[in-house]
Amino acid sequence: MTPPLLVSVRRGDVVEALHRVHVAFTDGRSHGDPELVCFLRSSAKPLQAVPFVEGYDDLPDAEIAIACASHRAEPAQLAAVRRVLERAGATVDDLENGLQEGRPGGKLGHNCSGKHAGMLAACRAHGWPLHPYRDPGHPLQQRIAEVVGGRGTAVDGCGVPTFAASLREAAALLTRVPPRIRAAMRARPELVGASKGATDTELMRLRDGWIAKGGAEGLLCAAREDGLGLALKAEDGATRALRPALGHVLGVDELRETPLSNSRGESVGVISLAP
Asked: Are 79 and 114 in contact (CB under 8 A)?
């Protein structure tokens, strides 16, 4: 087994932190432990959106993309969530996610509100009760469990079930995303993450044929349209380690280094693969 990738955080000439990143590909390549088990968290959103897409034949790219998103509460993202809620015949009060400090719009501003709005719309389309749609026994969550699979469940940060998987299994996760969802993510990557600064969005912009979705605690899954998939997991949950590790394993030069900035916007160091 090859060792995990080591990502360094350098301020000036001093290394302030080191992050170990495990990587698994569907073709068998790996760095670190491909059997490391973690929760899929938000990386599963493109598959959690399947019941939503199954329920409608007129969904625009924006509504599908925001259902897959961990958004930054940007105006275009919040507008897309509102459109999905209108489709569901629901309001912000129906969202079963909580609040996030510093986010506008109450529950609408939660980074998972697009997923939750899509879940409400899925319930409306399939004739399922709207509430409590986040309960593991609800027909919606039962359908999602069939789609996602996994080794066990716990409660995600936004209140819905999340699924455990080995990194090797997570590498194949986005290879199972239906073509309609894949196409929407490719068409509107800025809704999936952010207009600027989101690693999953940047990969989709920089490389044709790829989709990607980050998850909490330092996970990122990606898949190419030819069926190659991969997953990266920062052992300490540090999301900042993912961009340079992803740039290294995929040969994407634009992602290999992340400037380290201070509160004045000055560049004071760099995050990159350790030499």
From this structure: no
- The rounded distance, in Å, linking the Cα atoms of 44 and 141 is 13
Burial class (CB in 10 A: 0-12, 13-18, 19+), 242: buried
C-alpha to C-alpha distance for 203 and 145, rounded to whole angstroms? 28
- Asked if residue 151 has pLDDT above 90, the reply is no
Which burial class, exposed, middle or buried, applies to 249 when counting CB atoms under 10 A from its CB (0-12, 13-18, 19+)?
A: buried
Residues 117-147 have pLDDT tens digits of 999 999 999 999 999 999 999 999 999 999 9
Starting at the edge strand found earlier in the chain, the sheet holding 153-155 runs 37-39, 161-166, 153-155
Delineate the domains of the chain, giving CATH numbers in brackets. 5-273 (3.40.710)
- Supply angle C-alpha 201, 34, 194, rounded to 5: 10
Kindly state the average pLDDT of the residues 241-250.
98
234: which strand partners? 21
- Which tens digits make up the pLDDT trace of 159-210? 999 999 999 999 999 999 999 999 999 999 999 999 999 999 999 999 999 9
The answer to whether the beta carbons of residues 11 and 268 sit under 8 Å apart is: yes
